[in-house]
Amino acid sequence: MSRLAIKICGLSTPETVGAAVSAGASHIGFVHFAKSPRHVEADQIRGLAAHAPAHIEKVAVVVDPTDEMLGELVGAGALTALQLHGKESPQRVAAIRARFGLPVWKAIAVKTRADIDSASAYVGAADLLLFDAKTPDGAALPGGMGLRFDWTLLRGLAIPAPWGLSGGLSSDNVVEAICISGARLIDISSGVESAPGIKSVDKIMAFCKAVSAC
Ligand SMILES: O=C(O)c1ccccc1NCC(=O)[C@H](O)[C@H](O)COP(=O)(O)O
């Protein structure tokens, strides 16, 4: 079986980019959303991405982005994928993929089985579906809040698209999450932080070490 893919999301310093790479992450994520404590501008993303080798995937996380915003991010040149974390429709996802020429991930906000079922509308439009915990109505952020959902909802998932698991993961629960869900790509943000937006090198190392046991 292929090695598990790990995305460390919400990086904002060269030191923590380096830690993610050394620890064995396959993907690094940069949040471009002004309300987030992890927000980084397009030029910062370019600078941070330069601290990771070419084989590491560099993913920008955006929420209901305009084409202008995406043009600026993609134009900076460092990205290998876009992660859409808002209420983008399947048509909008497909249009972004066609226009910007990068693989597009669609985050699916999950609380119930109906949310998992809703993901099938994105098959063919998105390159990867990222199942993440639904945040409460009125929450400040649509992701990165350390919330988890019932991982058994993913057991035996037979969706014809690559997918990943996100939401509320940590070095303490990730092995259980992988065993229950069968995920082959996992994504983490606040579980490797010492405070909102402040990534911890030690927690990144511990998380990747825990995953390597799977
Ligand atoms: O992390 C953010 O601040 C954020 C803001 C707006 C949209 C998405 C955001 N994060 C998305 C991610 O990819 C997170 O890694 C994912 O939601 C899991 O977060 P966590 O539960 O904190 O591990």
Structure description:
With 214 residues, the chain is of the alpha/beta class. It has a single domain, classed as Aldolase class I (TIM Barrel), CATH 3.20.20.70. It has 7 helices and 10 strands. Strands 1-2-3-4-5-6-7-8 form an 8-stranded parallel β-barrel, surrounded by 4 helices. A two-stranded antiparallel sheet has the order 9-10. Helix 1 runs parallel beside helix 7. The mean pLDDT is 96. It binds the ligand O=C(O)c1ccccc1NCC(=O)[C@H](O)[C@H](O)COP(=O)(O)O.
Q: Which structural traits does this protein have?
A:
214 residues, binds ligand LARABZUK, single chain, two-stranded antiparallel ribbon, 8-stranded parallel barrel, globular, TIM Barrel
Order of helices and strands: EHEHEHEHEHEEHEEEH
What spatial order of strands do you see in the largest sheet?
A: 1-2-3-4-5-6-7-8
User: Which ranges are low-confidence, i.e. pLDDT below 50, for 5 or more consecutive residues?
Assistant: none
* CATH architecture name: Alpha-Beta Barrel
Question: Biggest sheet: strands, sense, closure?
Answer: 8 strands, parallel, barrel
How much helix, percentage-wise, in residues?
25-40%
State which percent range the strand residues make up: 15-25%
Taking all Cα atoms into account, the compactness measure Rg is 16 Å
- Report, as a whole number of angstroms, the end-to-end distance: 11 Å
CATH class call = Alpha Beta
Number of domain units: 1
Indicate the structural class.
Answer: alpha/beta
Kindly report the CATH topology.
TIM Barrel
Shape: globular
Count of individual beta strands: 10
